[in-house]
Write a structure and sequence with these properties.
Number of helices of chain A: 14
Number of helices of chain C: 12
Radius of gyration of chain A: 23 Å
Largest interface: A-C, 101 and 94 residues
Order of helices and strands of chain A: HHHHHHHHHHHHHH
Number of domains of chain A: 2
Low-confidence stretches of chain A: 5-13
Number of domains of chain C: 1
Structural class of chain C: mainly alpha
Radius of gyration of chain C: 22 Å
CATH superfamily of chain C: MetI-like
Largest sheet of chain C: none
Oligomer: heterotrimer
Low-confidence stretches of chain C: 1-6
Chains: A mainly alpha, B alpha/beta, C mainly alpha
Chain lengths: ~280, ~350, ~270
């Protein structure tokens, strides 16, 4: 295609009327849908002063909910990180029968309703489920116990690490790895010393996204948790509990904490994402 | 940064260790040293009462080495969780049918209600929760069907606790002299005034306190709880109303029947019943009065027994095909299948 | 242009074990449970399962859920593309913040989303706008949670778009609108469809935010996910499984259809 020299059409500094209109509509939509509600959340949470906010975090239920959530998110993300890196390498660097199928399977969790996730896990790992029944006879309980929540959380955050790492892995190309291989490095050594450092930013970006998602899961956890205070009551379930007990301050406080964690995660992941892309 | 993979490995090992610990701790029911842990699974409103009850029990000789895990949620949800395998030693629900569900699954013994108090540890009554000051002047059941009044009650087909409300309304109509047909008509008029049917009583209560509706049909103890939580509501105890009885039992799967029964004995004791009374529940034991003064006794109090018992009432009113409520909801375009 | 370097894929060392482990993990966590749902659904016979799905309340919930999800998806296609356009082609103070916040619905817990919308547009709204317990509220909740999908799929394509074509068209006399319609949109269409598919899949299964905001009134504002939840709690796992399978099937069909259409659109 011959490149035609044309005067730049939209090189003005001052926006045209059309552009201004678009900007107003887009921002107005975002304000009504996103910004205003979040602003109200902050107002409701901080409205009674930092003292009230702080005291709602220092109750034993709040503290244990935070601990439970962190443990659950940590486990789920750890599992999905190992899986994520492995699957990314398999999908990008290797060929095997069924590679396309694996590609599709990884995305399935995104299309499943959280309630269905809970139901699915109960049917298999619940006391009367296929695997659960066998485990129960050996004294291991998954559903209504911490491991069940880990499973539900791992399910919903499954694709995140894979989808963060895979594109970067693809764009990087495997020249360095091939070079290491020809120099005699073993597969594991190549992985540790060459592959992993190169995807570091993308990996952390994926982990942060997965963490944010895991901290905030509600629907699936509602079904599989036993709501045992101090053991299986997560932060999101605590919000539910506090709302039903007319403790609006506690509900809003926990909500604002989760919102801040979400924003923080987004900030970090944005920075890492752009850094990972720039290295390519 | 070579530390990265090491961090990942460490994370994986740590998480595996945590998961393994969690697995084992979820199945272990006693942590050495003679300590026993009882799992209490109950519906949501007695949570504050149990906080005090457990503390008081642990001060007694029987409760000295007993620890508790507590789980609270909507009555039907909790019953379902236990039915699906949630560990429980003591269960308390808002209504009897949630208990019989577990009896059918052999998780609660057949004779759970053979004792002196028929298995009920607290009572309550159906009341009208209104805005503070009762601006719409709601006094009795006929006021609920006035035009323009918005009544909240949960859907009786998804909320077991809503059934108390309906049966209370029906029974009151019968007591006022209505025939079966007229009482049914009353229910139809009542439902015409219901804008929203929540899935659970707890949700209906929070919707009411958030500003929806003029009156909520609920239990006395929920109204008292809302007031204790500084919600600006009042409640009216109608003369003709239904006695609500909350069942409690020790499960058949408990590993500590002795301690569980001891806890139950404490709940039935004067000390335990006093704590219940002070948190808004009517005691089942004679001679216990709440600090704030005796509960008003409705002149026309009736029980589920007067309506034929739960089994007959469920068939007559809530049968998905022929129940009285089924026909009413269908005529109003609201669904009746669970 | 993406600088994708072609790396030859090969069945290298450890591939077999890797694939085996990955398959095992996926099977235990995803495939087996989802399979169990389908299996449970038909455990009483296919006719019974269909009866559970088409019973008055679940059927009404399904129809309403699909209808609202379609409307929300269409709105998202428009607003998402619009927002992506403004983010790519415009510049203003605070654009960075807006960029960041677009992703918030991804990371925010659904119950927080519901709580936040309820406080602004419910009975205690400072704006005196009370739409809680209406279908509008469902639409609002779904618009919130599906906000990022179309924006994030369209944005990268828009960024990479070759502006020369637009300039050429403008030079040849085409109005701004025509340029957009004839030159830009066809190039964006595949991305818009991808985003629409993702948004729709998310919308039909949404639970947390909707359950807080909609009142869950049977036949009026009860969505499928809430009905399924009630079925689980009412000890009707077969009904719950049957409806769940229905939702999964619909999501699969829509995603497949959009994928096929997208492939045709990008080829044409």
């Amino acid at each position: 295609m011959v490149s035609i020299e044309v005067p730049a059409v939209a090189a003005q500094k001052t926006p045209t009327r059309g552009k201004y209109l678009l900007r107003v509509v887009a921002l107005g939509y975002l304000a009504l849908l996103l910004l205003l509600p979040m602003a109200l959340l902050c107002y409701r949470a901080f409205g009674h002063g930092l003292g009230a906010l702080w005291s709602s975090f220092t109750t034993s239920e709040a503290r244990s909910a935070v601990v439970v959530t962190l443990i659950v998110a940590g486990c789920a993300v750890a599992l999905n990180t190992v899986f994520g890196v492995g699957a990314a390498i398999l999908l990008v660097r290797r060929s095997f029968p069924g590679r396309r199928i694996l590609d599709v399977l990884v995305d399935i969790p995104q299309a499943v309703s959280p309630i269905v996730v809970g139901l699915a896990l109960i049917l298999v790992y619940g006391k009367f489920g296929i695997v659960g029944g066998w485990l129960e006879r050996h004294g291991i309980q998954l559903i209504f116990s911490l491991p069940g929540i880990v499973l539900a959380t791992a399910f919903v955050s499954l694709p995140l690490v894979v989808r963060a790492v895979a594109p970067v892995l693809a764009e990087l190309g495997d020249e360095q790895e091939q070079a290491a291989r020809t120099l005699g490095a073993s597969a594991w050594h190549t992985f540790r010393r060459v592959t992993l450092p190169s995807i570091r930013d993308a990996l952390v970006y994926g982990v942060v996204l997965a963490l944010a998602r895991s901290l905030g899961e509600y629907g699936a956890v509602t079904v599989v948790s036993g709501r045992v205070v101090g053991k299986t009551l997560t932060m999101t379930l605590l919000i539910d509990d506090r709302l039903q007990n007319f403790d609006q301050q506690a509900a809003y406080s926990m909500a604002v904490l989760l919102a801040l964690l979400a924003v923080g995660a987004l900030l970090i992941s944005r920075r890492l994402q752009s850094r990972a892309r720039r290295l390519v | 940064m070579v530390a990265m993979p090491r961090t990942v490995v460490a994370l994986v090992l740590a998480s595996t260790a945590v998961v393994a610990t969690a697995c084992s701790s979820s199945t272990a029911s006693s942590a050495g040293g003679g300590d026993v842990t009882l799992n209490l699974v109950a519906y949501s409103t007695p949570a504050p009462a149990y906080a005090k009850l457990i503390a008081a029990f642990q001060k007694t000789a029987a409760g000295e080495h007993v620890k508790f895990t507590q789980s609270y949620g909507a009555s039907g949800d909790q019953s379902n969780a236990v039915a699906n395998g949630q560990a429980a030693d003591v269960v308390e629900f808002s209504l009897e049918t949630d208990m019989t569900k577990l009896v059918k699954k052999n998780l609660v013994a057949d004779d759970w209600n053979a004792g002196q108090y028929h298995g009920f540890v607290t009572d309550s009554v159906v009341v009208f929760v209104v805005r503070k000051g009762n601006p719409k002047d709601i006094k009795d059941w006929p006021d609920l069907v006035k035009s323009g009044i918005k009544v909240l009650t949960p859907n009786p087909f998804s909320s077991g606790s809503a059934r108390w409300n309906i049966l209370g309304a029906y029974g009151a109509a019968k007591k006022a002299g209505d025939s079966d047909q007229q009482a049914g008509d009353y229910l139809t008029s009542l439902f015409k005034n219901v804008p929203v049917q929540d899935a659970s009583g707890a949700k209906a209560l929070t919707d009411f306190t958030s500003g929806t509706g003029d009156v909520l049909i609920s239990y006395e103890n929920e109204a008292i709880y809302a007031q204790q939580k500084k919600q600006s509501v009042d409640y009216v105890v109608p003369n003709d109303t239904l006695l609500i009885e909350n069942p409690i039992a020790v499960t058949t799967t408990t590993k500590h029947p002795q301690q569980a029964e001891a806890f139950l004995d404490f709940l039935y004791s004067k000390a335990g019943q006093q704590i219940f009374a002070d948190t808004g529940y009517r005691p089942v034991v004679q001679g216990v009065t709440p600090k704030t003064g005796a509960f008003p006794t409705p002149s026309g109090l009736f029980t589920i027994g007067d309506l034929g018992g739960w089994h007959a009432a469920t068939t007559k009113f809530f049968d998905p095909t022929n129940g009285v409520l089924t026909k009413i909801e269908k005529s109003l375009g609201v669904s009746t299948t669970k | 242009m993406s600088r994708r370097r072609n790396s030859a894929r090969r069945a290298g060392q450890g591939t077999g074990i890797g694939v085996g482990l990955a398959t095992l993990y996926l099977s235990l966590l995803v495939l087996l449970p989802l399979g169990a749902v389908a299996w449970k659904a038909q455990s009483g016979g296919l006719a019974h399962a269909w009866g559970q799905v088409t019973a008055p309340q679940p059927w009404a919930a399904l129809k309403m859920t699909l209808a609202v999800s379609v409307v929300v998806t269409l709105i998202n296609v428009i607003t998402g593309t619009l927002i992506a356009w403004v983010l790519v082609r415009d510049d203003f103070a605070g654009k960075r913040a807006v960029e960041l916040l677009i992703d918030l619905p991804f990371a925010l817990p659904t119950i927080v989303a519901g709580l936040v919308l309820l406080s602004l547009y419910g009975p205690t709204s400072p704006l005196h706008v009370d739409i809680a317990f209406t279908r509008l509220a469902i639409g609002l909740a779904l618009l919130f949670v599906t906000l990022p999908f179309v924006v994030r799929t369209v944005q990268p394509v828009l960024m990479e778009l070759d502006r020369d074509m637009e300039s050429a068209a403008a030079l040849l006399g085409a109005s701004g609108l025509a340029v957009v319609r004839r030159v830009v949109l066809p190039n964006l269409l595949p991305a818009m469809l991808t985003g629409a598919g993702l948004a729709f899949g998310r919308a039909i299964g949404e639970f947390g935010s909707v359950s807080l905001l909609s009142g869950n009134l049977p036949f009026h504002t009860e969505v499928s996910a809430v009905n399924i939840y009630n079925q689980i709690q009412s000890d009707n796992p077969v009904g719950a499984a049957a409806q769940s399978t229905m939702l999964l099937a619909i999501a699969a069909v829509v995603l497949l259809a959009l994928g096929l259409y997208r492939r045709r659109a990008s080829r044409g």
